[in-house]
Amino acid sequence: MSTQPETVYTESHRVSCDGATDIRAAGNYKPAALGHPRVWLEIDEKGYVDCGYCDRRFVLKGGPADQQAA
């Protein structure tokens, strides 16, 4: 069973991803320990960029890849 990667809509052309943004801390661990190294990504003329670690897709709001605007 495959799951579709998460899509994040943003208003910024430059985004960061650490794979643990939505993980809540509980116990004695830190959320970033469950993710991946923080990377900075740049959205280009396609209107989106995919994280090479976790496949999370960042879509520029109002850009060419924004299906919500339709």
From TrEMBL:
Family matches, as Pfam families: zf-CHCC
Zinc finger CHCC-type domain residues: 13-58
Gene3D superfamilies with a match to the protein in the record: q5lls5 like domains (2.60.260.40)
Protein name: Zinc finger CHCC-type domain-containing protein
InterPro entries: Znf_CHCC
Organism: Novosphingobium lindaniclasticum LE124
